[in-house]
Design goal:
Pfam families: DUF2007. The chain is α+β, with helices and mostly antiparallel strands and 76 residues long. It is built from 3 helices and 3 strands; from the N terminus they run βαβαβα.
């Protein structure tokens, strides 16, 4: 699994998850339940990870949806 998006925006998380679900791309959202520790103020970002074999496809999907600016830079 590799991180492709990191954000504090719950609407963006929902949109990215919906796109990935629709394309049947395996993913996981980490730190979703951290609001208990942060007091629901939204300072801890949520991380969306995608299975290694589907990263290129996921990045292309999000880029085509106009979310390229939200993508994490590719690791070298």
């Amino acid at each position: 699994m590799k991180e492709i998006v990191r954000t504090n925006d719950p609407v963006l998380v929902s949109a990215v998850v919906a796109l990935l679900d629709g394309a049947r791309i395996e993913h996981i959202v980490l730190d979703q339940n951290m609001s208990v520790l942060e007091g629901s103020i939204g300072i801890l970002p949520r991380r969306i990870l995608v299975a290694e074999p589907r990263i290129r496809e996921a990045r292309r999907l999000l880029s085509d949806a106009g979310l390229a600016h939200e993508l994490r830079p590719d690791a070298p």
